[in-house]
Specification:
alpha+beta
């Protein structure tokens, strides 16, 4: 059996953000759309991606700082 190419399973109707999008806006968008990552696009070009994991890392740091107070 031939392997399935990623083009068969990839999403085509992407939700993207600009580099200037705030983290709160991005988290709300991901939550509202039930998606786990957001491509970051500038001038029509992909320049990066943010994921749930990235935001979990930030939340973890903030929580640790808060607990130290």
């Amino acid at each position: 059996e031939d392997p399935i190419p990623v083009s068969e399973v990839m999403k085509r109707d992407l939700v993207t953000v600009a580099p200037e999008t705030t983290t709160l806006e991005a988290v709300a968008l991901m939550k509202g759309k039930s998606i786990g990552s957001l491509p970051v696009v500038k001038d029509g070009r992909l320049i990066g991606i943010v994921t749930e994991r990235d935001f979990m890392d930030i939340a973890s740091e903030l929580l640790e700082d808060k607990l130290k107070e």
